[in-house]
Amino acid sequence: MSRKNVLSILVFSILVCGLFMRTRTFSAFAEDDVLTIPYSDFNSARVTSSTVPTFNKSITGFGNSETSIWSFNVTHNLAFNSTSDQGSSMVGVCFNDRNYTEGQVTSYSNESWFFINFYAWGGMKIYYYTTTWISVWGNSSYTLPVRFDVNGAVVTVTDGDGTTLSFTMTHGALYGYYILERAYTNNTDSASNVVTSGEMNITLNSGAVASPGFYSYSTLIDNFKNLCDDYVGYANGSYEVVGKTEENRDMYAFYLGNQSSREVIVTGTIHGAEWFNAYTVYELAYWLCTNTSDAAKALVNNLRFIFIPVINVDHFNVTRKNQNDVDLNRNFEHGWGGYGSSADPSAWNYRGASALSENESQVVRGVINAHSTTLVAGIDLHGLANPVWDKLNANGSEYSWIMSNYSSWCGVRGSTVWSSQGVGSCGYLIEDMLYFGNATSFSVELWASTPTETTVKVTNRDNIICMALAFNSRYGLAYNYTVTPEPEPEPEPEPEPEPEPLSNFQESFIRLFVPFMLALFCISLLGKYVGR
After folding, report:
1. Among residues 468, 485, 480, 486, which one has the least CA distance to residue 299?
2. Of 235, 227, 274, 287, which is closest to residue 252 (Cα–Cα)?
3. How far apart, in whole angstroms, are the C-alpha atoms of residue 38 and residue 126?
């Protein structure tokens, strides 16, 4: 057999094996992938109020997208046991956002991203984040499609009845799923199986997030690095890895500005589900470097900014809490354990086992400690809420002065003045910024139930610029409430006109004259040589 034939057979075999493996696995993501769950799997995974599911599977291919639109189409022809309580007995599929191995789930209420539940009586629910119900009952009590904004994710239910459910979610990666069955008789846990025949089919598709203003976490960090590298001269740009997350991912801090004796720390995405504020942090940094207005120059020359765009790196665009189910904004030292936090690990505001128990909190606190003699202000960005600045400042007059200047700058720059309110004390990040970093500190709720490119790049950015200008007015060099209009981009230079073509006479003259002069020159040289 020739070498060519052997090579052809080898390539064909590899392709066939690849196709065979593709049809037997649910790990790669492609159009119209279908997860089929027979009724017997539900029965095998039945749980009670005191047990947890063990029938969970990894879906490694789902982890390849940090920000996607996930599309779910669910159908079933399951036959429910008529002896079970119709209002309580259910079967469900629960997707999680953590890279567990099979059998690793320890709590069906805390380890899931969301549930898809079908009930014996014919209703259905999506149970999201273990804190918020998104419900579609029977033939739907809603007018479909219906849109929900839950902890930073956009959920749109497009179809639903007792046997079908279609919805999309804008969210982060999927890593695995598990299934469960809850059977009740007379409102108590029952030994009977909920379903007796049939199967559930889930068709999944994925695509990039449609909004042009957003991109993956890795691209965000790369853009920040490039910005600091490109403006190392103008804005003294630099960056460093300041620590590791609970899952050993790098945490970055970026530095821009020429006055290291007056520093402003700006942090984002301490709650992973509030992902869009990280892009506002970047847009502020980009504006500082690229805008040539007097306002931008004043901030670059009078202050130095420390940007930590993403604190909850492990769960960026996934869930509120970190890998250990701790609300990082309840885990800082000052005020830890106060009203507004919870000791219950399943609570949305769980504060952790102790103050600074989490890697992420320790890393950020380390940055605060390292700059405590030069910090003058701190801003911690959040969402989703009405636009508001939450103040935390031991000196009331200082706060009042800054807020007055902030309002003035909003008037000058045409930004809406956001309202302000006081905050309590329960281990907030801004508390440690103030009490251990000596920085006048604010927590900012960026309102954007459905974030858009304009919201991120213009509205939120410009409002924070006004706050930064208020800091500058207080701590930096004088800069009055007069604004030099931000310059328009310089027009492209006019292309130089192409030279006019030569006339027929000119071309003929060059063709005859140049060879003639070369011939004379050669004859002259030859004459001199012969004359010798």
Report:
1. 468
2. 227
3. 20
Torsion angles phi and psi, residue 58, rounded to 5: -85, 150
Please, are residues 412 and 483 in contact by the beta-carbon 8 Å criterion?
A: yes
pLDDT digits (tens, 9 = 90+) for 48-88: 666 655 555 655 544 444 556 678 888 889 888 876 666 67
What phi and psi values does residue 348 have, to the nearest 5 degrees?
Answer: -65, -25
- In whole angstroms, what is the distance from residue 185 CA to residue 160 CA? 27
* CA gap 157, 165 in Å, rounded: 8
Rg, the chain, Cα only: 32
Question: Using CA of residue 55, residue 61, residue 62, residue 66, what is the dihedral sign?
Answer: positive
pLDDT at 207 > cutoff 70: no
331-358 residue pLDDT tens: 999 999 999 899 998 788 899 999 999 9
Closest CA to 134 of 144, 124, 143: 124
DSSP 319-387: -SS-TTS--GGG-SSTTTT-BTBBS-TTSTTB--SSTT-SHHHHHHHHHHHHTTTTEEEEEEEE-SSSS
Map tokens 């901030």 to a residue: 299
Tokens standing for residue 18: 């690849």
pLDDT recorded at residue 2: 54
487 CB neighbour count, 10 Å cutoff: 9
DSSP string, 39-71: HHHHHHTB--TT-----EEE-GGGGG-SSEEEE
3-state SS of 215-269?
A: CCHHHHHHHHHHHHHHCCCCCCCEEEEEEECCCCCEEEEEEEECCCCCEEEEECC
Q: What percent of the chain has pLDDT over 90?
A: 28
Which range is most confident: 137-151, 181-195, 284-298?
284-298
DSSP label at 460?
I
Residue 10 pLDDT greater than 70, yes or no: no
CA neighbor of 59 nearest in space, from 168, 173, 162, 157? 173
Is the predicted pLDDT of residue 480 greater than 80, yes or no? no
d(CA 415, CA 409): 8
Number of Cβ within a 10 Å radius of residue 19: 10
Q: Which of these, 275, 279, 323, 470, lies nearest to 389 by C-alpha position?
A: 470
112-140 confidence digits (pLDDT tens): 467 788 877 777 777 665 455 566 655 55
Token readout for 104 is 């690793």
Angle between helices 217-230 and 277-290 (to 10 degrees): 20
* Phi, psi values for residue 92, rounded to 5°: -150, 155
